[in-house]
Amino acid sequence: MLTPKLLIADDHILFNEGVRQLLSEKYEVVGQVYDGKDVLSAIHLKKTDVILLDINLPSINGFDLAKEIKRAFDTVKIIFLSMYTEPRFIEQSKFLEVNGYLLKNSTKEELIEGIESVLRGETYYDTKLQFTKISLHHNDFFVKQYSLTPREIEIVRMIKDGMSTSQIAEKLFLGQETVKTHRKNIYYKLSITKSTELIKFAIENNI
Amino acid sequence: MLTPKLLIADDHILFNEGVRQLLSEKYEVVGQVYDGKDVLSAIHLKKTDVILLDINLPSINGFDLAKEIKRAFDTVKIIFLSMYTEPRFIEQSKFLEVNGYLLKNSTKEELIEGIESVLRGETYYDTKLQFTKISLHHNDFFVKQYSLTPREIEIVRMIKDGMSTSQIAEKLFLGQETVKTHRKNIYYKLSITKSTELIKFAIENNI
DNA sequence: TGTACAATCCCCCAAAAGGGGTATTTTTTG
DNA sequence: CAAAAAATACCCCTTTTGGGGGATTGTACA
Q1: A163 with A101, same domain?
Q2: What are the chain B neighbours of A107 within 8 Å (beta carbons)?
Q3: Residue A172: which CATH number?
Q4: Which of B20, B104, B159 lies closest to A12 in CB terms?
Q5: Does a structural domain hold residue A73?
Q6: Tens-digit pLDDT profile for residues B52-75
Q7: Residues B181 and B123 both lie in one domain
Q8: Least buried of A51, A85, A183, B155, by fewest C-beta within 10 Å?
């Protein structure tokens, strides 16, 4: 096989550059991008075997990109390279049938092992993540997160900004009961029971 | 001048290694550590001119380390290399009289510029951070954060974990009123008024 | 055209959080 | 040891949340 062609997508320039340096002995790095919106065109421009994709990218996040890539370039292997170990990220990756998931605190060797596995057609999830089984309702998170309506997301943001039910009601020209209902529906959808959990959810999901 | 000696402290192995590769043409990298508790011994072991220090390190955070380093090795220049742009981090860095503060999404050139400035004895804060003036009460945050007592920090963590006052009381074998008092004192110290704000504080400060 | 969904509003009630105090007992520390 | 700080506990009262219902009005979509 020819030298496999890599694309690196990470907005942290130093990290991106560092990974390139580490992998350029063994692979051909055909591109480095720093923004989600540049990923698809980069793949289009240069034939790519594997993309190392950060989840937290500007403009478009890694999950949305993975969907797009699978749709438009179905031969490109996708490996998430992320600092997050949150189960729901792993679950969502599996749901999206992404080829691999590596952690940013891996060693060079682990990184290469992951890439090699994926090139052989296997899927490779970082060994530190084994605890995350493919749950039977692996798309719970997915459904949960994205079934929040626009109004609900708006209210989540306001709660995150520290506003109380009455303040939100006032600002949105709504009755308090309406806002309460929204809160209840949000909690139900996210399977949580209190505002503190909502804040964590909101921060973790960049809402 | 001889080749300046660098120490890199960052728990993300790939990043750490990447930075080493990038800088090893120009500097001598005398050490790479991945855990806060290994930093002081590493400096002790190898003469170090500049340490690139992540704030978010295991065991001991960058701020505490900076204090220790200044106390024990006052000739070592300290540069924080962090992804955080939060004003209070910058303020605290200035308060600690750290020599530089660089962002992880810098380019190689910016990194070198920062290191060179610091080596010349200047202080260098990433240009993307100019908006952060040294505030008159620059130690407000500092005082706030660190005037939390151990018990209070313990309770902050439990609140962050979603526990209610009564659950905390039960777990700590305390009366609810005691926990309420702690909560009140915490809120007072942090100038906040509700648990949602506490969650944000806790997450942002890795408590 | 009808049904699913979003958005709005209402009732009731319990639990929790928030805000104002005060006070006692340990622990730490100069 | 004496003073300061931390940890503990209580009272009173208000506001906010949380949980259980149910209901109406649009609007989108198939």
Answers
A1: no
A2: 13-14, 17
A3: 1.10.10.10
A4: B104
A5: yes
A6: 999 878 777 788 888 888 888 889
A7: no
A8: A85
Coil, strand or helix: which one is B117? Answer: helix
* B196 near A CB under 8 A: yes
Is residue A146 scored above 90 in pLDDT? no
Closest protein CA to C1' of nucleotide D21, residue: A181
Interface subset of B 140-159, CB within 8 angstroms of A: 159
Check residue A1 and give its pLDDT. 65
How many separate domains does chain A show? 2
Question: Is residue B41 located within the same domain as residue B102?
Answer: yes
Among residues A95, A129, A163, which one ends one of the domains?
A: A129
Percent of chain A with pLDDT over 70: 86
Give nearest nucleotide to B198 (CA–C1'): C17
Which tokens go with A104? 């940013």
A181 Cβ neighbours under 8 A, 6+ residues apart: none
Examine residue A134 and state whether it is found in any structural domain, yes or no.
Answer: no
| Sole residue written with tokens 């591109």 | A31
Select from B196, B203, B193, B197 the least CA-distant residue to B157.
B203
Model confidence at B134, pLDDT cuts 50, 70, 90, reads: very low
CATH of the domain at A35: 3.40.50.2300
What are the start-end ranges of the H helices in A26-175?
39-45, 62-72, 87-95, 108-119, 140-146, 150-160, 165-172
Query: Quick one: which H or E segment has residue A29?
Result: strand A28-33
| Side chain identity, residue B38 | D
Higher pLDDT, A146 or B100: B100
- Residue A106 placed within a domain: yes
Q: Is residue A10 part of a domain?
A: yes
Statement: the CB of B162 is under 7 Å from strand D:
no
Same domain, B105 and B161: no
Q: Which of A74, A102, A129 delimits the end of a domain?
A: A129
Residue B51: pLDDT over 90: yes
- Range(s) of the domain holding residue A37: 5-129
Reduce the DSSP state of residue B147 to 3 states and report it. coil
Quote the CA–CA distance of B22 and B6 in Å, as a whole number: 12
- Which has more confidence, A61 or B28? B28
pLDDT at A47 > cutoff 60 = yes
